[in-house]
Amino acid sequence: MGRLLVISGSDLWRSRSDGTERMQLVSDRCGGPAISSDGQSILFLQKGMIYVMGIDGGERSAIVNDRPAGAAEWSPDGREIIFWASDEQGHPQANFLDVGSGKRSEVRGSIGLLGSHWD
Whole-model pTM? Predict the structure, then answer.
């Protein structure tokens, strides 16, 4: 049975799809939660930063905190995250983040686009 992430009020919860094993992960306002493909990690947005933490809670790590970011999504293999952040002129632009190395790269030509999705 799969796991899901739910935002209730301003809190982030994890549970099984049948509602069992419910656990509060974050108690302050956040959004955009997503589970990695291996089911071991989650990402979420909070105050313009992207955080990653284990599916069972614990310490969260800010993986993007140098400029406001949003609309984050795991790659199908869980090795990368695509997200949107403003470039130096304030224009939203898609970015890739290699989770293992922390290396970030901007997606050329993505300024002015409205979203992204892995295939």
Answer: 0.84
Task: State pLDDT tens for residues 44-72.
Answer: 999 888 999 999 888 999 988 787 888 89
The closest of 83, 89, 76 to 52, measured between CA atoms, is 83
CA nearest neighbour of 93 among 111, 72, 117, 69: 111
Contact between 11 and 22 under an 8 Å Cβ cutoff? The reply is no
Question: For the CA atoms of 29, 45, 65, 85, what is the dihedral angle to 10 degrees?
Answer: -130
Q: What percent of the chain has pLDDT over 70?
A: 95
